[in-house]
Write a structure and sequence with these properties.
single chain; alpha+beta; Jelly Rolls; seven-stranded antiparallel beta sheet; 42% helix; AraC_XylS_family_regulators; transcription; HTH_AraC; DNA-binding; AraC-bd
Length: 284
């Protein structure tokens, strides 16, 4: 039997999440986040697709995802995964970027994978400080130095337009999904709004956004669900407010993308738990 350990901590000093997964076999389908992800493979081997590019990740490799970078990953050769990452909201990243560079902008990191990078050691040390709930300024200093090197070597100022041309029709569909995600949306309705057939809409949208329209919708729903859970809304209410057909669908898809159930994620931000810490051990 393999033992899975999933640990998540929200650091109130740094205003970021720290994830640690140990011994997991989970496959993560194509999705995106509305925040930055900086992580590394502590042990294992994974096949990653990010922005339609394929990578093979090994122990010691680092990943850096921008908000809305579509990505999917799965294990190779049946190996389990040990993984650590920090998740940084755009408004928090903007503050750190202003602190480091003196300029007010959102960075866009240009390399999703940094193979066997020296920064893995710094990220590992920072992650340990967060999980151990250290309160001195050492962890903030380490985070600033880590971000400074990433910004200097691997980032550009984010352009107001995507580096990949997105047509007006696809932009219109994205805007509609983002403002109507809580409703029941049909492919026929999206096709009618875009002026394309269903088939051509799916093909064009997927090619330009790197993710299918339905997966885009579900990811928008999950990102909104995370915000509601963080604010203390109960999982049952969140499911109803984010457009999922039933509680089971919501729970299953949330865990596929986030690695935790909605109830587990809700507990991280529930002030009844003084440490704001969750550790879930699953025997398999």
């Amino acid at each position: 039997m393999n033992r899975e350990v999933r640990t998540v901590v929200f650091d109130t000093d740094l205003q970021l999440e720290a994830y640690q997964f140990q011994g997991i076999m989970q496959k993560f389908p194509n999705h995106f986040h509305d925040y930055y992800v900086i992580g590394f493979i502590e042990q294992g081997k994974r096949h990653l697709v990010c922005n339609n590019q394929e990578y093979v990740l090994n122990t010691g490799d680092m990943i850096v995802f921008n908000p809305h970078d579509p990505h999917a990953c799965e294990g190779i050769d049946g190996r389990t995964l040990d993984y650590r990452c920090i998740n940084i909201q755009p408004e928090v990243m903007r503050e750190y970027t202003r602190e480091i560079t003196g300029q007010d902008y959102l960075p866009r990191f240009t390399a999703p994978v940094l193979y066997q990078h020296e920064l893995v050691s710094s990220l590992h040390d920072l992650h340990l400080m967060i999980l151990e709930e250290q309160s001195d300024f050492g962890k903030e200093e380490l985070l600033l130095l880590l971000l400074e090197q990433l910004l200097r070597d691997y980032a550009d100022a984010e352009s107001p337009v995507s580096s990949q041309d997105v047509t007006t029709e696809v932009k219109r569909i994205c805007e509609y999904i983002e403002s109507h995600y809580m409703e029941s949306i049909s492919l026929g309705e999206l096709a009618e709004r875009s002026g394309m057939s269903k088939y051509h809409l799916v093909r064009l949208f997927t090619r330009q956004k790197g993710i299918s329209p339905y997966r885009y919708l579900e990811t928008i729903r999950i990102n909104q669900a995370k915000r509601l859970l963080e604010q203390g809304t109960l999982p049952l209410e969140v499911s109803a407010q984010t457009g999922f057909s039933d509680q089971s669908h919501f729970t299953n898809f949330f865990k596929k993308l986030i690695g935790l159930t909605p109830k587990q994620y809700h507990r991280i931000f529930n002030h009844e738990y003084e440490s704001q810490r969750l550790q879930d051990r699953v025997l398999r």
